[in-house]
Amino acid sequence: MPVSPLQLGHDEERRLAATLFNHVWDLMEKPDRSAADDDEMLHGAHASRYHWGVAGEPVHWARGEWQCSRVYAVLGRFEPALHHAGRCLSLAVQHGLGPFDVGVAHEALARSYRMVGDAAKVAEHLALGRAEAAGIIDADDRAILDADLASLT
Could you tell me if 133 and 144 are in contact, meaning their C-beta atoms sit under 8 angstroms apart? Predict the structure, then answer.
């Protein structure tokens, strides 16, 4: 786990990570984002992931990587979207995070490959994401993943 040069307390670090994560999500959903909003969204996603790296658990690291991937996908930037989606999957598998986190990693990979028109990779990761979704017990989590996967078809 990295050590923050900011000398923040553990609770402050976690609160900052969560606040930034939610702010980035608000910016992603903003219908009339400006170029400055896009920059803020991108920097906020990385800042959130950094703070989760200091004060979070593997689930936070993986979801932070997922958010970075999603931001890059929203911005149409394939290579970093693919990179962070791959990190999300690696962390989810390495730490046994379960079907929701493995599933959203596959959703992020499918979303990344869709940007460059790789239909075979999109289909592969959609199928893997759907297989993971089938194993999610929590109905709300399953609905989130199902909706994200459906948005790619």
Answer: no
